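Progress report, Aim 2. The chain analyzed during this reporting quarter is listed below.
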Amino acid sequence: MTAKGHDRLIEHYRSLQARWSVADRSADYAPLVVSKGNASEPIHGWFHFKEGFSSHLLSRLFKDAAYVPTNKISILDPFLGSGTTLVSAILMARDLGCDVTAVGVERNPIIYEVAKAKVASALRGSSLLGAIASVEGIFWKEFERLKSAPESLTTPSTTLNNSNYFAASYVRSLLSLNRATRVISEPEVRAVFRACVSAAVEPSAKLRRDGRALRYVPDRETIEPIGSFRRSLAQVSEDLKGLSPMDDARIEIVHGDARDLDLLGRTERFEWIVFSPPYPNNIDYTEVYKIEAWALEEYSNAAEMKKQRLKTLRSHPSIRFPDEYHYKNNDHADEIDALLCPLLESVPSGRYERGRRQLILGYVDDMLRVLRSSRKLVARDGVCAIVVGNSVHGSGEDSFVIAADLLLARAAEFAGWSVEEIRVARHLSRRGAGVAYLRESIIVLRAD
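Predicted structure tokens for the chain:
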């Protein structure tokens, strides 16, 4: 990218930012937009979801809005992830003695399973312990039966079958653990057991999630899955002790698409919408969490995994998505083109040009659909808080920043929201240190 092109993009971002109140709130929010600390929290720590945010973020958002729920917490998270928003809302409502109505939507099948288990457990509390204890015997009996016939414990996953990544005996244990959960008839209990299987997968592999990919670590010490599973199940029981059930809560977890919230068929309006969408970078979460998905047999072949990848938000260029852009048929099409033009012109020519242009267009198009869908579901004067990070693409003179916080704030206005504030939560110091607008922010929107 030429110096002139770089200056034009920065000036475009500067002009956009001048539209709104932008505050550096890193002192308050830096530890809250990352998942560090969740591992030691009851329920929140059951599965390591690297891309999550803190279990304390919701209470901070409420505090800054001077919002004190008295009768009910009403909240929607269209990118539920591993369930942090809803679990936080449930635990908070229990402490305050109020009701909670919440809906969470998640596209990734394995993360959806984990969220379902955590949310159900937060709701049912100690009342779930008896149900868990009552099925342990039949579960382990089925596990032993499956293990006794190793010839049937096969998987089409090339990753799980790679002996550099997984010991063959570990793969058989994971498959046996997962298949043994099928004898559990109660869905919520089965979800808890499957979440424990999920938590045992990465520790058993010489792979680790590192930024945008799974990295091979040949000298990594692995953990035998059965022991890991037992420890996870014991932690579940420990966390649920003394946790009273919330019988009147109305909670729904949907395996669906945040771009099509109309399909939820909801009639009520939510006071809060809180979410963190995938950032416009190079992270394909279907790929990053594929070993758990294969171990839990969410896919029967590679074609099914590819189909899942194509269903995801267009936040990465690692797969060729269709060149279809809904905003082109929208009343604001010309304004959106003007919003994106300086960024598109900054994309350097070369082998990555098409993928990067597709990423920019697809991401904003998809997020505009999310913002429109969510706007229909918010109560009057309701709040939407979006945690999103900006990203650097390319290197050297060809590098450019996708300022997602500014792009989404403007897209939100096209979708009928008012931008109350952009809170800079964290200044990023990864690749591209010192680059303007490289940050993680919380966009606070209002429904006037």
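The two ends are 40 Å apart (CA to CA). Residues 210 and 314 are 20 Å apart (CA to CA). These observations will guide the mutagenesis work planned for the next reporting period.
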